[in-house]
């Protein structure tokens, strides 16, 4: 029985190279998520603070986004923040993802590129599927990659 349950747990991750700085990328995603729809309108329609303080542990953000061609929503709570390492962890507390996953935790960290301008964002999804029929969230990683690249272009255009 224990083996069966463990196959429902998973981790997927990806890394995206960016031209924009660590500070700018982190600020847009953590401090100004409500501007994300300007950066990537085809992927993210809105991000609204539902409770707490923007960019602080305990803040709850409602995201309206498009995944696999369908409009979806997710409420995420900031679980932890490490400003020195530019790392943040969100837990999905409500929304479409919880129809397929009993838990879904996203961690992202932005680090400077070595020896050149720009940064690298690392996305890490840790999840538990409700059953074996649910796919691993690779398409969500693709979405995170697209959003990261759109954000990067947007930030460069603001300079």
UniProtKB/TrEMBL annotation:
SUPFAM superfamilies noted in UniProt: Bet v1-like
Name used for this protein in its record: Bet v I/Major latex protein domain-containing protein
Domain called Bet v I/Major latex protein: residue spans: 7-158
Record-linked InterPro entries: Bet_v_I/MLP, MLP-like_ligand-binding, START-like_dom_sf
Superkingdom assignment: Eukaryota
Species of origin: Arabidopsis thaliana
PANTHER family xrefs: MLP-LIKE PROTEIN 423
GO biological process: defense response
Biological classification of the source: Eukaryota, Viridiplantae, Streptophyta, Embryophyta, Tracheophyta
